[in-house]
Amino acid sequence: MSADPAAPQPAEPDHPPVAIAAAAFGCRCPRCGKGKLFQGLLKVRPACAVCGLDLGQHDAGDGPAVFAILILGAIMVIGVFIVEFRYQPPFWVHALVWPALLLPSTILLMRVLKAGLVALQYRHRRSEMLGEG
Fold first, then answer.
1. What is d(CA 76, CA 92) in angstroms, rounded to the nearest whole number?
2. Total domain count for the chain?
3. Range of 38's domain?
4. Section 95-120 average pLDDT
5. Are 85 and 15 in contact (CB under 8 A)?
6. This prediction's pTM
7. How confident is the model at residue 28 (pLDDT cuts 50, 70, 90)?
8. How many other C-beta atoms are found inside a 10 Å radius of the C-beta of residue 110?
9. Surface-to-core class of residue 48, CB atoms within 10 Å of its CB (0-12 exposed, 13-18 middle, 19+ buried)
10. Does residue 46 lie within any of the structural domains?
11. Most buried of 33, 69, 119, 120 (most Cβ within 10 A)?
């Protein structure tokens, strides 16, 4: 009698499960939690340098960008309104302040969201990322 392929598979013995939040906020490999996930700012490495997980199978798509736009867009619009109606600065202050806040915030949030999505995919589609399916 063979095991049901749809049943959840136990974690690999060498790699205890890594919390999704830990992998996301640390931008680490979703299997071992030690290897760096990114090569540069937002490019996912082909494989984990520590455990060898093939990270090329991930499919983050536009999910992280959509969530970053929605989250940061709401925060920035609220911030602009508060600053404009409370302090009424000249236009050039808005032109300098908001892009300077938005660019680093976007990159930071995109890294966390993309790492979280890769970790979620590993957790729920492990066989595809391990090349078993």
1. 16
2. 1
3. 20-129
4. 95
5. no
6. 0.81
7. very high
8. 19
9. buried
10. yes
11. 119
Residue 49, C-beta contacts closer than 8 angstroms, at least 6 positions apart: 35, 36
Return d(Cα 33, Cα 45) in angstroms, integer. Answer: 14
Domain annotation covers residue 6: no
Tokens coding 45: 């490495």
Distances, alpha carbon 119 to alpha carbons 39, 50, 53, 62, 102, in Å: 16, 16, 12, 16, 25
40: left (phi over 0), alpha (psi -120 to 50) or beta: left
Could you tell me the two tokens for 6?
A: 């749809």
Is residue 11 domain-resident? no
* Residue 83: count of CB within 10 angstroms of its CB: 15
The answer to whether the beta carbons of residues 118 and 60 sit under 8 Å apart is yes
Query: Rounded to whole angstroms, how far apart are CA atoms 86 and 79?
Result: 11
User: Does 15 reside within a domain?
Assistant: no
Q: What is the DSSP letter of 113?
A: H
CB 22 within 8 A of CB 41: no
> In this predicted structure, what is the pLDDT of residue 17?
85
